[in-house]
Amino acid sequence: MSKRVMNPATRTAAVALAAAGLGASMVAGAGSAFAAEGQAVTPIAATASAAVAAQAETQAKVAAQVKAAATKAAATKAAAAKTAAAKAAAVKAAAAKKVVTAKKAASWVKPVTSYTLTASYNQGGAMWAHKHSGQDFAVPVGTPVKAAGAGTVVKAGPNGGGDGPAYGNAIVVKHANGTYSQYAHLSKIKVHIGQKVGAGQQIALSGNTGNSSGPHLHFEIRTTPNYGSAVNPAAFLRSHGVGI
């Protein structure tokens, strides 16, 4: 049996070609693996980046909405507080005005209610030695008589409280503004000298005592406690917000 021997040059070329073929396969395989790996990784990275961006955008929108809602709530609260403060101020002002009005109205009042005006101030006639010094209110005997203004009783009793028998039972009250009010022809006196009285407080009952032609209250406003210093009582009351 003969043995074939390959030419060394031919053998070397075959080995080189085989090595070259293996290298090409390896290179191609590596390239394929690299390409496959690149195709698998790139979409995941892109998707993650997009998700982060989308999440950030959503959070920004939510934050903006929360901030807008908070701003609106604060504005609404401020507006409500301002409205409430304005209402409170209006109510307070109205209450203060009411109190002032009430105090002004209560400073002076009519001495009697449900009356008929008869003889007026400075009226002449046979009933008086001089002209009439006050305003007469025709009322039944026993009608409550009230202090026209706050003050202190300086005269109270029969004989006009010291002004003479023509007045019958009478009271004189001194007021803070330096004036005096007088109430005459009373059936009953309910206060005493030195007593403090308030505007509208009952001080007596009307009557028909003294120089009187019928039951009535004789009312005067004076500049002193004594007879002879009277001023027009109707005009005085009107100047203090009280009409008769």
Description:
The protein has 244 residues and is α+β, with helices and mostly antiparallel strands. The chain folds into 2 domains: 11-107; 116-239, Glucose Permease (Domain IIA), CATH 2.70.70.10. The protein is built from 2 helices and 10 strands. It has helices spanning 8-107, 233-239; strands at residues 116-117, 135-138, 144-146, 151-157, 169-175, 180-189, 196-197, 202-206, 216-222, 230-231. Strands 1, 2, 3, 4, 5, 6, 7, 8, 9 and 10 form a 10-stranded antiparallel beta sheet that branches. A hairpin with a 7-residue loop joins β9 and β10 (230-231). The radius of gyration is 57 Å and the shape is rod-shaped. The N and C termini lie far apart (167 Å).
Query: Per DSSP, what share of the residues sits in E-state strands of 2 or more residues?
Result: 15-25%
Number of helical stretches of at least 4 residues = 2
Shape: rod-shaped
Uncertain regions spanning at least 5 consecutive residues:
1-5, 12-39
Q: Estimate the mean pLDDT confidence.
A: 82
Our Rg estimate from Cα atoms comes to 57 Å
User: How far do the termini sit from each other?
Assistant: 167 Å
User: Sheet with the most strands?
Assistant: 10 strands, antiparallel
Please tell me the total number of domains. 2
Say how many strands there are: 10
CATH architecture of the largest domain: Distorted Sandwich
CATH class assignment of the largest domain: Mainly Beta
Structural class: alpha+beta
CATH topology of the largest domain: Glucose Permease (Domain IIA)
